[in-house]
């Protein structure tokens, strides 16, 4: 049975989350190329990634298919999208100027997410990842 008012988590849903997050938290970040988002394979550890196609100059955000599961809070998915958008804003896997030497130098990603008002996503992520790690540990 399908729950009412709960959207299916497909690639269109991901695109709507990306739109929402970009508009609300990254409105100062110019979109300088085409950006695509889709669910990838059911990765257990790599929750998201962003890559630049050198030929087409388009950026591709990939989110683990594990996040299609409605038991994963939507804020956790938003957190992952926000994380990849920080990389985009910093010029990693995007056509924007590169602001750091390394994408995760000195915790810049979480710091910037907090500064941009995404603390609530971070809290949700921290709570979820704690349980998730335990679950993975005991299922091995
Ligand atoms: Zn990252």
Oligomer: single chain
* Rg, alpha carbons: 15 Å
| Shape, principal axes of CA atoms | globular
Strand order of the main beta sheet, please?
1-3-2
Q: How many independent structural domains?
A: 1
| H-E order | HEEEHHH
According to CATH, what is the topology? Answer: Zincin-like
Looking at CATH, the homologous superfamily is Metalloproteases ("zincins"), catalytic domain
Distance between the termini: 31 Å
Q: What are the segments in which pLDDT stays under 50 over at least 5 consecutive residues?
A: none
Helix/strand/pairing class, anyone?
A: alpha+beta
Architecture (CATH level 2) name = 2-Layer Sandwich
What is the mean predicted local confidence, pLDDT? 93
Number of strands: 3
**Strand count, sense and closure of the main sheet?**
3 strands, mixed
Describe the overall structure:
By secondary structure, this protein is α+β, with helices and mostly antiparallel strands. The chain has one domain (11-139): Metalloproteases ("zincins"), catalytic domain (Zincin-like, 2-Layer Sandwich), CATH 3.30.2010. The protein has helices at residues 11-25, 74-89, 108-115, 119-139, and strands at residues 35-39, 48-53, 58-63. Strand 2 (48-53) and strand 3 (58-63) form a beta hairpin. Helix 1 (11-25) packs across helix 2 and helix 2 (74-89) packs across helix 3. The mean pLDDT is 93.
């Amino acid at each position: 049975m399908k729950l009412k008012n709960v959207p299916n988590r497909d690639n269109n849903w991901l695109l709507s989350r990306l739109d929402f997050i970009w508009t609300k938290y990254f409105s100062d970040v110019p979109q300088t190329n085409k950006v695509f988002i889709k669910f990838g394979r059911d990765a257990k550890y790599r929750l998201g990634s962003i890559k630049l196609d050198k030929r087409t100059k388009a950026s591709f955000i990939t989110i683990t298919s594990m996040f299609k599961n409605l038991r994963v809070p939507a804020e956790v998915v938003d957190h992952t999208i926000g994380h990849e958008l920080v990389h985009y804003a910093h010029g990693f896997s995007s056509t924007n100027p590169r602001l750091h030497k390394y994408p995760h130098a000195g915790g810049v990603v979480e710091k910037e997410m907090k500064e941009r008002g995404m603390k609530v996503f971070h809290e949700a992520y921290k709570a979820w990842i704690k349980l998730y790690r335990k679950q993975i540990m005991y299922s091995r």
